[in-house]
Amino acid sequence: MRFIEEVVVEEFLPTFRSMLAEELRERGLTQSEVADLLGISQSAVSKYVHGEVARNERLLTDERVVDLVERLGDGLTDGAMSPVQALVETEVVIRQLEQGDVLAQLHQEAVPELADYGGAFDVHDPDSDVRIAEQALASVRRGLTVIENTTDFAPHIPAVGTNVVEALPDATGIEDVVAVPGRIIDLKGRPEIPAEPEFGVSEYVASVLLTAREHGSDARAAINVRYDPTIVDALESNGHTPVEFDAEAGIDDAIPTALAANPDAEVLYQTGGFGIEPVIYVLGPDAPTVAGRLRDCT
To answer: Which terms does the record give in the GO molecular function aspect (predicted)?
Structure first.
């Protein structure tokens, strides 16, 4: 784990300070005066000025960094800019370079996994795509833990397998839904989870969730199990409204029809059809919640 702040400290600061120290010395300031302005020791200034500190070539030639150094050199030398203003101006440029720019690129090189999310995001943004996606993945992992710790869950896994899925807030397709690749199966009386959750690996359960969301449901997660009327009754007794849909009508028609009759339904089920296994879908705000609702009924 490497934070972008480490990139700032290890790559930006040595380069920036050495450039600014050179700029100020060229304008006639003494090492002592430069040290006072930068808040560092005279020996550090000497190292910066004499090229004894490694510098990042991409930052060294970046026009915004060069422009910043020149503006600070002018302002600090003639007294038009205070050290506090210089600090603020520098912070502004750092934040700019962190947002899908050169510092973000250096961070991505240090943490290659960030490439999966593209480079144009602010790692500090609490609503960034990276954070939201990782929260969804973590939520599904917690849901899987509930399943693994639920006694006698395996008998409720249908022949087609179980999946627990969670959609991003603005999901538009299955690529925006986290699920278990290959689905969960009953392996000798226990649920077998074949792999870590990923985006875009569920077709049917994700489609049920997305269709429900398109037609009024505010659910973010869903799980499917074998149809059992006692489970439907137990879910209803626990305050979760069930509604039946036509297994042979197809998801695009059946789910909207069922929700039109009861928009608040959190349990969608079908009792089977020709070549179609009967299944229950439990909807809810997140993966641990929907898994927990089934745990409380099995």
So the answer is: DNA binding
Rounded CA-CA distance 156/164 in Å is 14
Do residues 153 and 184 make contact, with C-beta atoms less than 8 angstroms apart? no
pLDDT band at 98 (very low <50, low <70, confident <90, very high): confident
- Which residues constitute the domain of residue 250? 129-295
- Whether 123 is in a domain gets the answer no
Q: What is the pLDDT of residues 257-281, one digit of tens each?
A: 999 988 899 999 999 988 899 999 9
> How, if at all, do strands 267-270 and 242-244 pair?
parallel
- How distant, in Å, are the alpha carbons of 43, 139, 149, 226 from that of 142? 52, 5, 11, 21
Q: Specify if 164 maps to a domain.
A: yes
Q: List b or e across 142-168, with b for residues whose CB sees 16 or more CB atoms inside 10 angstroms.
A: bbbebbeebeebbebbbeebbbbbbbb
Tell me, yes or no, whether 153 lies in a domain. Answer: yes
